[in-house]
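Section 5.1 Outputs to date
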Amino acid sequence: MTFSANARARKPPTLQPRRLSALTQLSFWLVVGSVLALSSAVFVAGVNPVRLSVVGIGFLLAASFTLWLFRRGFPHPTLGAGNLVTLARMALIVSLLAATSGGARPWLVVAVASVALALDGVDGWLARRDDRVSSFGETLDTEVDSAFTVILAASAMVAGTIGPVVLLLALPRYLFVGASWVWPWLKGSLPESLARKVICVVQVIALIALQVPGLIGVLTTPLVLVVSGALLWSFGRDVVWLWRHRA
């Protein structure tokens, strides 16, 4: 063996950079998310101690739920870009709690909500691309979407664009979940449905449009009734499917 070959043989292996654990990554990005939520709240409603406190408490609850969900089981060694997008959406949506106590700038609420809506679907695509699909990500995404509709509905009522009828757009999913505790077969897995996804997007678009006083005028109530009718059809179809395929 030559000297050069012997030197190559004794060359120490290249050290690979150590990856942070998924939990460490999650904790870090939750801290970043809290800053994003508070900054976005200031953007939407200005510096107001009461509103910022509401947003801070809201994000603390959201972060606690996220960590609880993570500890139930996360199968991947790293968090993945898809989950980071979901966390960013969560922060933006929580920041809109600042609009539920009045005094928010309607068009800025629309802007932040539109960004959060535009990111919906990106997280799922990234998770599939990076092979980071998990029940954690799916559940977190679902709960973030559900909270989005409730916060937007509350903001619309505070803005005075519509009354409690807007809850027809915010509560169907929670009524469905509540019913599943009475009838466990409602907890079954549903097949993918393009119609369900489209109706959910239309639901959020309608709620975003309701943020600006006078934007829709006399069409406000008919819009809510039409979209809530589509939601009722979607949930009704899912209930029938689950009933037919119950164990």
